[in-house]
Specification:
Elements: H1 4-11, E1 20-22, E2 25-27, E3 34-38, E4 45-50, H2 54-70, H3 78-94, H4 96-107, H5 111-132, E5 139-140, E6 147-155, E7 158-162, H6 168-181, E8 185-189, H7 196-208, E9 215-217, H8 222-231, E10 237-241, H9 244-256, E11 261-265, E12 271-274, H10 281-293, E13 305-309, H11 313-325, H12 345-360, E14 364-367, E15 371-372, E16 380-381, E17 384-387, H13 394-397, E18 404-410, H14 413-420, E19 428-432, H15 436-445, E20 450-453, H16 482-485, E21 486-494
Parallel strand pairs: 7-8, 7-10, 8-9, 10-11, 12-13, 12-19, 13-18, 17-18, 19-20
Antiparallel strand pairs: 1-2, 3-4, 5-6, 6-21, 14-17, 15-16
Helix pairs in contact: 2-8, 3-5, 3-7, 4-5, 4-7, 5-6, 10-11
């Protein structure tokens, strides 16, 4: 059983200044610059990370290209890659608590969730793709008898991966694991406000036997090192999770450089739709509350738009209020906390600005709406609920990425569909109904990459996660992720 005293010992552990991880070793950045790492728990500086520049990116991409061309990893057998990746998964599991606490000190996710969503998920992801390596086959085309048409899958080469601060270890694993399983080399650029667990991961990968240069971690400002990675002419594929603003920049950088393929997961404004025949309103309220307030709402698929059939609005709101009032917001390393901190000051300021705008536009604040625990020095915010949110309001259209829920009523299925599809995003959704026919009609009608039915979240690596519209393209997770990291090559053989 996990003891609070163990957590406190890890909380006090000194974190040395962090270097870049290039070609299997710590490297000082060419710029000689560093960035402070400020913990959202208390607003204190806990260490520094290297602030890479374009020269560092170039050096790193060359290291990744060299090992790819040498074939130490890219041409090794699937069985050999499998064994290394299984060892990586084992090491992540062995160091799970260290990784989780390190990540929480960096980004503020409540520890109980972080343990499962970060090292727990990452280990499972590496195991999944390790086991998949030797089960992905090529194809034989249905040609004439005098021709043999063969379709091979080959690694693309060097993959640039840029990941966000909300679940850095989980999301990085979604990208790293299938990329290296396919034989590629990776240059990973974490968010400058959540890099620590990924630098630790890189060292575990080396310990597991991953050849130097296959996984490199470059830290620093996105506007400098992220831009340089996007513009680099020797990066073959770029994968990204984050904002639409940055996603557009990466597409621009691709066009300005080598037309590298760019795959984007850009967040959402996901509708969570409650019909009057939902099987258990109290349970639906509890799950819906966690669907927006876990990790302080800093979840790409967060159910931030609650659409409730008007006939049950009053009843459901009572259940929702009861569920939210039980949530304990506080120190994310306290095992009694249900919700942790906002990751950084800039995000907290953005959240509070949305509260002010929603109020000015006429939404009804029914719970929360303010910064809390100000004496801690950290970044904490109460779970916030607005009722009477209209489709034209900013709160119905724009992603907050914080613990802010907007509630809107609908009359019937047609209006629910219209509301669900009324904005530019299409990442996730949920439908609560006891009617199987209603659920299936809604699944087909909603423009989203993932539609949950009588639940919210919880899908594993067997199914893809990806969006439509301005939520992006391509998918993480499942065997379909290999499509991003492999090229198809045709062999057309004339037989005598």
């Amino acid at each position: 059983m996990l003891e609070q005293s163990t957590i406190e010992q890890l909380r006090q552990k000194t974190i040395p200044p962090q270097a870049l991880w290039i070609n299997g070793q710590d490297c000082t950045p060419q710029s000689q610059r560093t960035l402070d790492v400020i913990s959202p728990i208390n607003g204190e500086i806990i260490t520094t990370i290297a602030d890479a520049n374009a020269t560092d990116i170039d050096h790193t991409v060359k290291a990744a290209r060299n090992v790819f061309q040498q074939g130490d990893w890219s041409r090794s057998s699937p069985a050999a890659r499998k064994q290394v990746m299984l060892k990586i998964a084992d090491l992540i599991q062995q160091h799970a608590l260290d990784l989780a606490v390190l990540g929480v000190r960096d980004n503020g996710t409540e520890l109980n969730m972080a343990l499962k969503a970060e090292p727990g998920s990452a280990a499972a992801t590496f195991r999944y793709y390790a086991e998949a390596i030797d089960k992905v086959y090529g194809e034989i085309a249905p040609t004439a008898d005098n021709v043999l048409g063969m379709i091979h899958r080959e690694p693309v080469g060097v993959v640039g991966a840029i990941v966000p601060w909300n679940f850095p270890l989980m999301i990085a694993a979604w990208k790293i694991a299938p990329a290296i399983a396919a034989g590629n080399s990776v240059v990973l650029k974490p968010s400058e406000v959540a890099s620590l667990s990924l630098l630790h991961l890189a060292k575990l990968c080396k310990e597991a036997g991953l050849p130097d240069g296959v996984l490199n971690v470059i830290t620093g400002q996105g506007s400098i090192s992220g831009k340089a990675l996007g513009l680099h002419p020797d990066v073959d594929v770029l994968v990204f999770t984050g904002s639409g603003f940055v996603g557009r920049k990466l597409l621009e950088y691709s066009a300005r450089s080598n037309l590298k393929r760019v795959y984007l997961e850009l967040g959402g404004k996901s509708p969570n739709i409650l019909f009057a025949d939902a099987p258990d309103l109290a349970k639906a309220a509890q799950v819906s509350a966690m669907g927006i307030f876990r990790n302080s709402g800093q979840v790409c698929i967060a159910g931030s738009r609650l659409l409730v059939q008007r006939s049950i609005h009053t009843q459901f709101m009572a259940h929702l209020q009861a569920a939210v009032e039980k949530l304990r917001v506080g120190d994310p390393l306290d095992l009694n906390s249900d919700v942790g901190a906002i990751s950084n000051q800039a995000q907290l300021d953005k959240n509070l600005a949305f509260i002010e705008t929603a109020t000015q536009q006429g939404a009804k604040l029914v719970h929360g709406g303010q910064q809390i625990h100000t004496g801690s020095g950290g970044y904490y915010m109460s779970p916030t609920i607005f009722d009477n949110v209209q489709p034209a309001m900013d709160l119905a259209k724009e992603e907050v990425f914080g613990p802010v829920l907007g509630v809107t009523c609908f009359e019937d299925e047609a209006e629910a569909i219209e509301l669900a599809n009324s904005n530019e995003y299409g990442l996730a959704a949920a439908v609560w109904s006891s009617n199987l026919s209603t659920a299936h009609r809604m699944i087909r009608a909603i423009n989203a990459g993932v539609v949950h039915v009588n639940c919210y979240g919880g899908s594993d690596n067997t199914v893809p996660l990806g969006g439509v519209k301005q939520s992006g393209n391509g998918v993480d997770k499942s065997l379909h992720a290999f499509d991003k990291y492999t090229n198809l090559k045709t062999a057309w053989i004339q037989l005598s």
